[in-house]
Amino acid sequence: MSGCLSIVATPIGNLEDITLRALRTFRECDYVLCEDTRMTGKLLSHHGIKATLRRYDAHASERVHEMVLEDLAAGKRIALCSDAGTPGISDPGVLLVARARAAGSSIEAIPGPSALTAALSLAGVPGNQFTFLGFVPQKKGRQTFFATLPEVVQPAVCFESTHRIMKALEALLIHPTATVMVARELTKLHEEVVVGTPAEVLAHFQETPIKQKGEFVIIFRAT
Ligand code: SAM
Fold first, then answer.
1. From the CB of 78, is ligand 1 less than 6 Å away?
2. Is 148 a residue whose pLDDT tops 80?
3. Domain 4-110: which topology?
4. Ligand 1 midpoint to CA 73 (Å)
5. pTM over 0.90
6. Which fold has domain 115-221?
7. How many separate helices (H) and strands (E) can be counted in the chain?
């Protein structure tokens, strides 16, 4: 028997953004590891799938990792997903994948949505290079992060939360001629893409405070 760990991408908002292969994997696996069983439960019930859900998040213990590795060795098929998007992209999964790979387990990717690629696909940026910087640092290193943005391969893409989006846009004012794109609530009802100089984009969100709520991807271009 050969077990397999399937890394399954799930919707970043619109529940229809899921591949046939992802749905089949959820249907056929022995259990699903997910960050929040209620959230994944909602997705699966939307698609009429009943599966055993087990919690796996950033705080998963050594014991949990061992149990998963034992199950893989015993031939179980295990799906791993996060709350939204692709596991391992600023989401749990990296450690489990590394452990499974070191143990010689079979691992497969079930690709699909990610806020990173969705935002880039809307950005219309020239060239085929970009730098993904993950989440903007919350405290330490935040100033340096914004100051050194023009030094990375352009465009620079980062995630920001609703709590800090305005602070991030204010910090970007140090690059007055840069172009910033903010992709908000992608694939959801209030999806919005705002492009302009840092001052223009900041003004847009200041004018309508309700728009400061949601999930955000920032794409920065110095030139
Ligand atoms: N692994 C996920 C992926 O591949 O999309 C990213 C997970 S990370 C914990 C969550 C961050 O992704 C949010 O804070 C936000 O910056 C971004 N994000 C997720 N969904 C989004 C959406 N629908 N619209 C814009 N940004 C989103």
1. no
2. yes
3. Cobalt-precorrin-4 Transmethylase; domain 1 (3.40.1010)
4. 32
5. yes
6. 3.30.950
7. 8, 10
